[in-house]
Specification:
The structure holds two protein chains of two kinds. Chain A is mostly beta strands. Chain A has no helices and eleven strands. In chain A, the strands form two sheets. In chain A, strands 2, 4, 5, 6, 9, 10 and 11 form a seven-stranded mixed β-sheet that branches. Chain A is globular. The relative contact order of chain A is 0.33. Chain B is an all-beta fold. In chain B, the strands form two sheets. In chain B, strands 2, 4, 5, 9, 10 and 11 form a six-stranded mixed β-sheet that branches. In chain B, strands 1-3-8-7-6 form a five-stranded antiparallel β-sheet, with no helix packed on it. In chain B, strand 4 and strand 5 form a beta hairpin. Chain B starts with a strand and ends with a strand. At the A-B interface, strand 5, strand 9 and strand 10 of A face strand 5 and strand 9 of B.
């Protein structure tokens, strides 16, 4: 199994509070991604990173920010959580350009009340 | 509107039956991937198809990429309870992996 760990695995937070989710990898892979998975929508890309300090927006980036200060860590921050951000969040990693295989973490279930 | 339409969305069959899951789009993909996801886990890659008309087999699973690279199918022969899960297709548009789009998935239940 690819060394990819998401934390926390579960979180309940209140509307308006900041939340940070962490993705940690031990594979030294260049590319890292954050997705959210919702019923009826499938997996949607929030943000991705193609190197340390290099990030870009995905399909559903509004309300989210990311940071990657080290190869192994990719943080997703909800600056002010809203109920619409209740979801399951997945981190994925990929080694290099042209690779088709992506490895996913186990997910973080976030509930905003 | 989903770029990749998967059908059916739900499928419940008896052990031993055959089934086919479809993934369709009006877009052309440089590659298409199939993943399987179990409850509480992340998706796990089953196969990647790249060439139009390509057929790949993984034990009892057969994957086919359409000639025009707009659609794909997954056929399972003699389904077993261990095949139960959510099957996702993902298409890669030109421009790198950030352009991968996922279908909603097919939730398969195989009843012993």
């Amino acid at each position: 199994d690819a060394g990819i760990t998401q934390s926390p695995r579960h979180k309940v937070t209140e509307t308006g509070t900041p939340v940070t989710l962490r993705c940690h990898q031990t594979e030294n892979h260049r590319y890292m991604y954050w997705y959210r998975q919702d019923p009826g929508h499938g997996l949607r890309l929030i943000h991705y990173s193609y190197g340390v300090k290099d990030t870009d927006k995905g399909e559903v980036s509004d309300g989210y920010s990311v940071s990657r200060s080290k190869t192994e860590d990719f943080l997703l921050t909800l600056e002010s959580a809203t109920s619409s951000q209740t979801s399951v969040y997945f981190c994925a990693i990929r080694a290099r350009t042209g690779d088709t295989e992506a490895f996913f973490g186990q997910g973080t279930r976030l509930t905003v009340v | 509107t989903q770029l990749l339409e998967q059908s059916p969305q739900f499928l419940s069959i008896q052990e031993g039956e055959n089934l086919t899951v479809y993934c369709n789009s009006s877009s052309v993909f440089s590659s298409l991937q199939w993943y399987r996801q179990e409850p509480g886990e992340g998706p796990v890659l089953l196969v990647t198809v790249v060439t139009g008309g390509e057929v790949k087999k993984l034990k009892r699973l057969t994957f086919q990429f359409g000639d025009a690279r707009k659609d794909s199918s997954l056929h399972i022969t003699a389904a077993q309870p261990g095949d139960t899960g959510l099957y996702l297709c993902a298409g890669e548009l030109s421009g790198g992996y950030q352009k991968v789009t996922f279908g909603i998935g097919t939730k398969l239940q195989v009843i012993p």
